[in-house]
Each structure stands twice: as structure tokens, then as C-alpha cells.
Amino acid sequence: MHVTLKTICPLLIAVLVAAVANGQTQVEPKIALKMLNAQQQQFEQGIVKVADNVFTAVGFHGANTSMIVGTDGVIIVDTLMGPTSAANAFEAFRKYSDKPVKAILYTHSHGDHIGGASAFVGGERPDIYATESFGSAEGVNKAVDPVKMKRNVRQFGRKLSPSESTNRGVAPANTYDSDRGKGHLPPTVTVPRSGLKTTIAGVEIEFHIGPGETDDAMFIWLPKQKVLLAGDNFYSSFPNLYAIRGTAYRDVLSWSESVAKMAELEPHVVVPGHTMPIQGQEAATAALKDYSEAIRSVYDQTVRGINAGKGPDQLAHEVKLPDHLKDKPYLIEFYGSVPHAVRAIYAGLLGWYDGNPTTLNPLAPKLKAQKIADLAGGTEKLTEQMESALAKQDFQWALELADHVKWLDDGDLKLARKVKITALRGLAAREYNAPNRNYYLSYANELESGQLSEIWF
């Protein structure tokens, strides 16, 4: 099964193209929900046969795991988040082969791909393959782990109620995570930077180094079956070139180049790290070419804008996907976002400063809020403008004004909080980008429950 925009319906296509043209992931609430519900089909639980001896388990957790059947054993590619979900997938695999596991291959070190390995292991410990740089997936200083964990919960909507949850863009909303990482087994075979060609259980396998979403990523190529196992460098959504939970710079240019190398193989099937496999040489190869081009286009447009003296705020609203890529089902911004990518590329190449001397030493938030209030004619007038923006459903402006009001000594903090909560939920209802939607709703709930301090609100 492969979801296309025909699944979503012609009306949504028109709305989607208009939204993309405006650099937005916001549409009417009913349409946003329909789009997210359609994307849900990309991770319906089941086993997909992608070749005579290759099977992919989709929807048993957030990521995919695959089984390659050889002469005297099987090979597992990626192992989900923990042993419970991995065991469920393995049980489903066993309908196709009961041969022992001879090897486990990690495409990269994100936890949802490496945490369930023990569930696939019997009496004999298999070889476990990974890159030389395995373990460098996150690249963020552990000093910021406390706030990163909070943001992770928001991005994935881990604490949202069933009525609020939709999905995570490339994964179902509800996954069993209580045993996360408890089945991880460390690599025993290192794939060199030059790659590796070998035979395991009678199956010819090629390991290709392919940095992208992570620096330690590789993709797996089965030359006889023409099957490509892409890891998280490809899935059916515009890629998460920056994760709002907080990540170090993901080398966007390398990501594009790695996907281009995948396309050169002209696979008959591409198995993503998440979402349904794409089958058929024309479809699979075209998807990879388009994906690489989309990433490179966002990078090139951003660099041109930077060299023209434009700042990240301006570029985030100007950079768009090329017209011929806007309606590709695997490039809809369900997970990654073009504006987020632009800001990440800017910061990754130049750091935080946009080159404008006005922003070199900006006013402190409290002082700026007071000056904005003075400009509006006083705190009362600014508060009226905030409420007016909310009444007009100008939710982003209402949010920004609420953040000014909350800094004022004579401001109505309770009202500002209430406005912010309502505006966040208004934005969430219109989002088809799952991380944005989840973050808005999660933050609104934290504000409403009093979990956040006045500083963070």
C-alpha cells in the first residue's frame, strides 16, 4: 500500500498547493485533520513483502524493521524502540521464515531503530553491523538534556489525550515506549568509511555510508533483489532537516548527496526508515531523485538568500519547494518543515547572528514589551489589540502580543495566558505538520495546568 494525494482527494490537493506556495503548513481545521488521517495509512500495522525474500514490518512501533531471508538464516535491519514491539514484529516475521538470525544491521543510532535487538536473538549471538561513527546521532551536548527531553515530549505529543492525538507525521501517535532501549545490543562489526560488500547467509549485501539525518547513517543495498533499505534519510514526508525538539545541525548538503547516491542505484523498491515501502523501479527511483532535489533546492535557495544579505526570518517565508515537487506525496510537510529547515541551514552555516546591526544587541524582552505597550498607547490598548487579534483568529499575532503583555508589570498575566492557550490551540487545529501541531497542543496543556513558570510562558 502506498498513499498518494489521490487518497487525500482533489480538494485537498488544491488547498495543499496553495498552502505550500505561501510557505505554510496551515489549512482549514477539517482539511488538516483529513490530511493527517490520510497519512495514517502510511504506518498501518502489517508485513509488506518487498521481494521474494525481503519483508518489512510497518506500524509495530514508530520505525520500520525488515527481515531478509537467506539460505541458512535471516538478517534483521533495524530493531525498533524496545524488545516488546520488536518481539511483536518478529512474531509476524516468523510466518515467513523460522531460520535463525545471522546478523543485525543498524542503519543509524536513533533509539527507535536500535532498542529492540535482543528480541531477535536466540541462543547464538548474531553479528551486529554499524558505522564507525555509530552513536553520534544526536550530537547535542548532554548539558541541555533536561530541556531537550521536555521538547521531545511536546514534538511527539507523548502526553496528549486520545482526543488530541493524530499522529507523529511518520509514525503512529501511540507506541509502546516503556521498555525503550532495553533490548539494545552494541555493534560487533564496524562498517568502514569506504563501505562494505559482503555475503551474509548467502545474501549479497552492500553497506553504503550515507550521512544525512544523522552523521552515523548508512543505507543497505541488495543488488540481486534491487531493494534499497534507506534508513531515516528517506520516508514519505518532507524530511526533518531540523527537529524542533532540539538537534545539532544536520548536514543538509550531505543528506541531499546521500539520497542522490541511492537514486543512482535505480532500486525496484525503497524501504524507508518510517512509512510504507515504495515499490516499482520508476516510482522508487523518482521518489529518491525528487527527495534529493527538494533538499538541495531548499539549501541552495537559502544560501543564495544569505549571500544576498537576507536574514533567517525573511528567508523562512520566501524559500519554497520547486513547483514540480509541491504535490509529491512523499514531500508533503507532515514531519519536516521548509521554514524550519531554512532557519537550521542559516544557523548551521552562520550561527545565530543575521548580520543586521539592529539585532546585534536587541532590547531585553521586558524593556521591549514596555516600549511596544507605549507605542500602542499603553498597556490597556495593547491588551485590547491582543484580544482583537484572537477574536479575528489571527492566532500568531495574538501569541506574539500575549508574550509582550505577560512581561508588563501592569499587564493582565492571567488574560495573556488564556489568550496564548486559545491561540495555540487555534494554530494546532490548522496544522497538518504533526510536530508543530503536537508542540502547540502540548504547550497549551502545560500552560493550562500551571506546569510552566511565568518566564517560560
Automatic annotation (TrEMBL):
UniProt-annotated stretches for the region Disordered: 159-189
Superkingdom per UniProt: Bacteria
Key words, A-Z: Hydrolase, Signal
Keyword Signal: yes
Enzyme Commission no: 3.1.2.6
Enzyme class: hydrolase
InterPro entries hit by this protein: Alkyl/aryl-sulf_dimr_sf, Alkyl_sulf_dimr, Bact_Alkyl/Aryl-Sulfatase, Bds1/SdsA1_MBL-fold, Metallo-B-lactamas, RibonucZ/Hydroxyglut_hydro
Any Pfam family hit: Lactamase_B
GO terms for MF: hydroxyacylglutathione hydrolase activity; linear primary-alkylsulfatase activity; protein dimerization activity
Record-level GO BP terms: dodecyl sulfate metabolic process
Gene3D superfamilies to which the protein is assigned, alphabetical: Alkyl sulfatase, dimerisation domain, Metallo-beta-lactamase domain
Domain Metallo-beta-lactamase: 62-274
Signal peptide: 1-21
PANTHER family reported for this sequence: ALKYL/ARYL-SULFATASE, ALKYL_ARYL-SULFATASE BDS1
Name of the protein in question: Hydroxyacylglutathione hydrolase
Native species: Novipirellula aureliae
